[in-house]
Specification:
11 helices, six-stranded parallel beta sheet
Length: 327
């Protein structure tokens, strides 16, 4: 038996319950992990509350990102050994890593560097994988280009800032108020725009000599999307990878037409479903971790028994970086 977090109804953090569950033996291409740390993600709040695009089948278990020790593996698994420290690259939303033990597809595992902690390992692959998929694989971001990054103090936003810096681009962090401006600059942002205190379109025009940003990396959606389109350069690309805003996201059709804009959405599991993209993601992030160009930023760590408190904190949106649970 293993202690795992499940929920039997949709609702607030209090619906999360720690229960004893049976974890089966791994299948041919699976690994059984003894979980040491779990990375929390905003999509799990939507799933738990019943507001995700696809509702979970109850009772359900959350979790797409974790780090742990290999306890056993299936007959078709190569290159991994019992006792190795590994992290999970989010590639299967139905797995559920909120627990002491879990099964994981072997292809989504990556060995943890000797100098990386469990917490950092659990905070790495969703954030930097999302940044890689959007900015490198889709946008082909390169030296000198400007990228607007919404929800910049989130784990994915901070990973996007570092990813842009790694390839010589100019990351402009968007945040609601100036409270986190200094921390965002210290994290690598070239500029910070406080969208509730400054005019977004005017500031982007000033920073880009009137041209606008070549790329937008948006986790929020909602009414601000129209301003993002206005701040985008002719022929620019707007990438949507989240919907933090509860409001409807308008399609600024006139700007899309007259400015020859491209709007593109994605989710990380779709990208890592392809072996060549998964290999490229592992290489890019692995090199960045080794060189120090990429490093996860953790906002707060909670023990496993405080999963409800961890979700409450995650919902505040006040964090700067990743929320991690240790097991």
């Amino acid at each position: 038996m293993s202690r795992s977090v499940r929920f039997h109804e949709f609702g607030g953090p209090e619906v999360l319950k720690i229960e004893d569950v049976v974890v089966p033996e791994p299948g041919p291409k699976e690994v059984r992990l003894r979980i040491r740390a779990i990375g929390l993600n905003r999509g799990e709040v939507l799933m738990r509350s019943g507001k995700s695009a696809t509702k979970a089948t109850l009772p359900a278990q959350l979790g797409v990102e974790a780090a742990g020790v290999i306890e056993a593996f299936g007959s078709d698994v190569d290159g991994l050994a019992v006792g190795e420290r590994v992290a999970v690259i989010p590639g299967d939303l139905g797995r559920g890593y909120y627990g002491e033990v879990a099964l994981a597809p072997a292809r989504t595992l990556v060995k943890i560097p000797p100098n990386q902690s469990w917490q950092d390992a659990a905070a790495t692959w969703m954030a930097f994988g999302t940044a890689w998929a959007g900015l490198i694989d889709i946008a082909r971001l390169s030296t000198g280009r400007t990228v607007l990054i919404t929800a910049a103090s989130s784990s994915a936003g901070l990973a996007a800032i570092q990813t842009a810096r790694k390839v010589g681009a100019n990351p402009v962090a968007l945040t609601r108020t100036s409270t986190k401006a200094t921390a965002l600059l210290e994290a690598g942002a070239a500029h910070v725009i406080a969208t509730e205190e400054q005019d977004l379109v005017t500031e982007v025009a000033r920073l880009t000599g009137g041209k606008g940003a070549e790329v937008v990396f948006d986790a929020v959606g909602g009414p601000t999307f129209e301003k993002l389109a206005e701040a985008t350069a002719i022929g620019g690309l707007l990438i949507a990878y989240g919907r933090f805003s509860p409001d409807v996201t308008p399609l600024p059709l006139a700007k899309v037409l007259w400015k020859d804009l491209t709007i593109r959405g994605f989710v990380l599991p779709t990208a890592v479903a392809l072996d060549d993209k998964l290999a490229a993601l592992k290489q890019f992030i692995g090199e960045g971790l080794a060189s120090g160009a990429l490093r996860p930023i953790i906002a707060k760590t909670f023990p496993f028994d405080e999963i409800v408190a961890a979700h409450r904190y995650l919902e505040t949106g006040a964090q700067f970086g990743k929320v991690v649970v240790t097991v």
